[in-house]
From TrEMBL:
Entry protein name: NADPH:quinone reductase-like Zn-dependent oxidoreductase
Cleavable signal peptide: none
Gene3D superfamilies listed in its UniProt record: Medium-chain alcohol dehydrogenases, catalytic domain, NAD(P)-binding Rossmann-like Domain
Lineage: Bacteria, Pseudomonadati, Pseudomonadota, Betaproteobacteria, Burkholderiales
SMART domains: PKS_ER (SM00829)
């Protein structure tokens, strides 16, 4: 691994939770368009478990040892020669691109296009909970579904990490929001702005809702398939966990056999969409500092607030991953280095 310069959580290969370990790694070397960030906090996301298990192997060829973690908040400690938007000392947050992950670490180099100034009103721990869920939600609702005032949106797992942000963002767009969650989390949903709360344990959302413009799916499986029942003709299901669709197969470099496999995997969902005159899209989020800057402004204006379930110290990143992976958190799980929480 070279001369030890920083500590980071990594995996030596794909597998279960026991694969994640804390080790010493060389100092990141920022390129001319990179900023070097001292990480104050990072958050845990479902994608982290997928990376560890190897679920993304068909799309991304990672090298080992692989540093873990996919979003962060921290302070700029060095900038590349071509960087113009950031300076040493800036408080920032970011979601690095999928080939440069590794935010469960003390420092990281990130391309400046994937970085934004941290919302002023948030601590580093709060800001670290935002990037991935914010970009996922914004791209699903604005870029794909093109929601506007008066739209009707169903958000599955509305009290979860993505869902708790999505409820607030949909309300900011002027939508009518229904969300699923256990009864114990309905008060949280109400405080975030949800108009309808559905207890997924005792109620069937597909029997209660009709004529929705969008379903934001974070569950997949039978929940995804039943979601088409609530849409109006022309409505759309956007999923972050369902089968990849033909658009991904066209846009992402991959061999023919993998394109054919994607077509087969998504056939059932595409047939359901066709039968109801609706659409289906699988969303693979793209990093964007410009979009994060837009989100930061909304947060500083008070339109959206972070929802954090627990904060773990950096040394307990494995425990933080296990808790998040259990699927019962309300909002995000954050890993903190214990540095100054504001700035």
């Amino acid at each position: 691994m070279g001369a030890a310069a920083l500590k980071a959580w990594y995996i030596p290969g794909y597998g279960g939770p026991e694969r994640m370990a804390l080790g010493d790694f060389p100092e990141p070397s920022p390129g001319p368009s990179d900023v070097l960030i001292e990480i104050h906090a990072a958050s845990v996301n479902p994608i982290d478990a997928k990376v560890r298990k190897g679920a993304l192997r068909p799309l991304v060829k990672y090298k080992f040892p692989l540093l873990m973690g996919t979003d962060l908040a921290g302070r700029v400690i060095a900038v590349g020669a071509k960087v113009r938007r950031f300076a040493v000392g800036d408080a920032v947050f970011a979601r690095p691109n999928r080939m440069r992950i590794g935010t469960f670490a003390e420092r990281i180099a990130v391309h400046e296009d994937e970085v934004a100034l941290k919302p002023r009103r948030l601590s580093f721990e709060e800001a670290a909970s935002i990037p991935l869920v914010a970009l996922t939600t914004r791209q699903a609702m604005r870029d794909v579904a093109r929601l506007g005032p008066g739209a009707k949106v169903l958000i599955h797992a509305g009290a979860g990490g993505v869902g708790s942000f999505a409820v607030q963002y949909a309300k900011h767009l002027g939508a009518h929001v229904a969300a699923t969650a256990s009864q114990a989390k309905h008060e949280l949903l109400r405080s975030l702005g949800a108009d309808q709360m559905i207890d997924y344990r005792t109620q069937d959302f597909s029997a209660l809702l009709r004529d929705f413009d969008m379903v934001f799916d974070t569950q997949g499986g039978a929940t995804l398939r039943r979601s088409f029942k609530v849409l109006r003709p022309g409505g759309i299901v956007v999923s972050v966990v369902g089968p990849p669709d033909l658009e991904l197969a066209r846009d992402w470099p991959m061999p023919f056999y993998l394109r054919a496999a994607i077509a087969l995997l998504s056939w059932r969902v595409r047939r359901l969409a066709s039968r109801c005159g609706c659409r289906y899209r699988f969303l693979l989020m793209q990093p964007s500092g410009a979009q994060l800057a837009e989100i930061a402004q909304l947060i500083d204006q008070g339109h959206i607030r972070p929802v954090i379930d627990r904060v773990y110290p950096f040394e307990q990143a494995r425990e933080a991953m296990a808790y998040a992976e259990a699927g019962h958190a309300s909002g995000k799980v954050v890993i903190s280095h214990g540095r100054a929480s504001t700035g």
